[in-house]
Amino acid sequence: MFKNRWLHTVLILLTLGLASCSEYEKILKSGDIEMKYERALEYYEEGQYVKSVTLIEQILPRLKGTQKAEELDYLHAKCYYEMADYVMAGHYYRTFVSNYFNSPRAEEADFMGAYCYYQLSARPSLDQTNSMNAINAFTLFISRWPNSSRTDEARELIFEMQEVLVEKSYMTARLYYDLEKYKSAVVAINNSLQDYPDTKNREELIFLKLKASFLLAKNSIRSKQQERYQDTVDEYYTFIDEFPQSQFAREAERIYNESTEFLANK
Q1: Where in the chain is the domain with CATH 1.25.40.10?
Q2: Per CATH, is 84-178 categorized as 1.25.40.10?
Q3: Thinking of the domain 180-266, which architecture would CATH place it in?
Q4: Could you read off the pLDDT of 120-132 as tens digits, one per residue?
Q5: Is 0.85 topped by the overall pTM?
Q6: SS3 readout for the chain
């Protein structure tokens, strides 16, 4: 008996599904723009975003220049966002702002265009193009809408993305050091410290720069060693002046002593 009821329920659901598909196919083939417009709104409210966006893309070209076009353009972007297609959603949000800057919806669309970049941003070990795009887009949002209720949120997201970039910069410098590419490590550390002087990793980075300089000198050909050991001594003074009580102070002193000993013998 239970099995019969289960089969009956499945048949009902299949029948309803087929009827729904049949109805949707008829709407797609229809030339009634007003009906498609109404159904696109209904499908969106029902969470059927694929159906909604398909209808919107059918009728938008026919409604350009009308009040309904503005509403559908905005809904177009929202559909893609709800489908987690942040590339397309971001594109359509930014297009909306460009086309309807004076619209009451423009502020929200501008924020969401930036937020789509944020959604696409990757963990620090990967490419950070979208993090940079998010920072730039949120910065532009704040300048455009200084009195927006979302400016504080935008600032928080900018800070979050900046922290990701700081971590990426640190990981790149550290990677060169770990790969024993000491010359590249020195350059990468310099760049990291220049771009993010207040990084929480500052002490470690300056010490790694000292150590990379030392190992570069140690592994250099004889003709370049004197100059590079002298650079190491200079790096030691830079490090110890800023961090005299550093946890790395003892190892830094060992590097200094070995470097000065080489220079004295020369």
Answers
A1: 84-178, 180-266
A2: yes
A3: Alpha Horseshoe (1.25)
A4: 999 888 899 999 9
A5: no
A6: CHHHHHHHHHHHHHHHHHHHHHHHHHHHHCCCHHHHHHHHHHHHHCCCHHHHHHHHHHHHHHHCCCHHHHHHHHHHHHHHHHCCCHHHHHHHHHHHHHHCCCCCCHHHHHHHHHHHHHHHCCCCCCCCHHHHHHHHHHHHHHHHCCCCCCHHHHHHHHHHHHHHHHHHHHHHHHHHHHCCCHHHHHHHHHHHHHHCCCCCCHHHHHHHHHHHHHHHHHCCCHHHHHHHHHHHHHHHHHHHHHCCCCCCHHHHHHHHHHHHHHHHHC
Q: pLDDT tens-digit profile of 166-207?
A: 999 999 999 999 999 999 999 999 999 999 999 999 999 999
